[in-house]
Design goal:
11 strands; three-stranded parallel beta sheet; binds NADPH dihydro-nicotinamide-adenine-dinucleotide phosphate; globular; single chain; six-stranded parallel beta sheet; Rossmann fold; 291 residues
């Protein structure tokens, strides 16, 4: 059994991007991060994105509009970033406060600056299998993790648990694409799936993205399968200073001994998400004529 080291694979990708960006003469790629409100997870994600950008040599700007900002004002702010020639990528950190329509804000971002990959145009490109668009970062990160861990998908049965627009649905579409590194046979399960364990047991590659702590147990996994755990769940743990610890959607201790490869939580898929955001930013810069 091999534990796939997401930190190491993400670090290799970041190092490659750093070498690529350092060779750019003149203006460097620039990402603008927009965070509304003080959600602690969002604060830490935006910080991490800024730090990784700096490490690569990507310029990052952080905008912190007031938590009560109106929909029209936030859309006007996005319009300004769309027009700004110095901005290559725009990321509006999710979740937005409840009074804001997140889907409408994402759709307002110019598709060519949509490095998070949530604009309907870019999701459409994923459906078409057209790599000219930007795939959402977590699903793209999962594909990169599988490729760099030498997991062959062609002809194999990939079972995805979860059908969200952020993870489950796009990763299923990416694995299904007609291209080297994909070409899988894909099944997607969700909360209405009947007898999910028997479907999960058929997976050569099982991707768990449901947001339920340690849901996937040994009886749901085929021996020798590859297991990708996307979940990030807090469970109470009085022995920790923070009072909680992070676990995935997979019960690691019981599943790991059965499988050929598995990602840990933390340190598996998570680091890839930020690295792919940076990769998309450099791609946006190039596509906008940067050299
Ligand atoms: P969502 O809550 O948006 O979607 C969860 C999906 O799982 C839904 O499709 C839902 O089904 C399905 N589901 C929920 N409960 C069950 C169940 N008991 N049986 C079968 N299916 C179920 O979550 P996300 O996709 O946004 O996130 C999933 C997990 O991944 C979370 O833990 C999240 O924190 C993590 N995550 C990690 C990232 C990373 O960078 N590593 C990035 C993004 C997310 P239905 O559609 O029927 O409701």
């Amino acid at each position: 059994m091999e534990v796939i080291d997401g930190n190491q694979i993400a670090a290799a990708l970041v190092a490659e991007l750093k070498a690529e960006v350092s060779a750019i003469r003149g203006r460097k790629p620039c990402i603008t991060l927009v965070r509304v409100g003080e959600d602690p997870a969002s604060v830490s994600y935006v910080k991490k994105k800024g730090r990784t950008a700096a490490e690569i040599g990507i310029e990052s700007r952080v905008l912190l509009p007031p938590v009560g900002i109106a929909q029209a004002e936030l859309e006007a702010l996005v319009d300004g970033l769309n027009r700004d020639p110095g901005v290559d990528g725009i990321l509006v950190q999710s979740p937005l406060p409840d009074h804001l329509d997140e889907a409408a804000v994402f759709a307002r971002i110019s598709p060519e600056k949509d490095v998070d990959g949530f604009h309907p145009y870019n999701l459409g490109k994923v459906v078409q299998g057209d790599e000219a668009g930007f795939a959402p970062c977590t699903p793209a990160g999962i594909m990169e993790l599988l490729a760099r861990s030498s997991v062959e998908l062609e002809g194999r049965h990939v079972v995805v648990l979860g059908r969200s627009l952020i993870v489950g649905r796009p990763v299923a579409l990416l694995a299904l694409q007609r291209r080297a590194g994909a070409n899988a046979t894909v099944t997607v399960c969700h909360s209405k799936t009947v007898d999910l364990p028997s479907i999960a047991r058929q997976a050569d590659v099982l991707i768990a993205a449901i947001g339920r702590a340690e849901f996937v147990t040994a009886d749901m996994v085929k021996p020798g399968a590859v297991v990708i755990d996307v979940g990030i769940n807090r469970v109470s743990d009085p022995s920790r200073k923070a009072g909680y610890r992070l676990v995935g959607d997979v019960h690691f201790e019981s599943v790991a001994p059965l499988v050929s490869k598995i990602t840990p939580v933390p340190g598996g898929v998570g680091p890839m998400t930020v690295a792919m955001l940076m990769k998309n930013t450099v791609k946006a810069f190039r596509r906008r004529g940067g050299c």
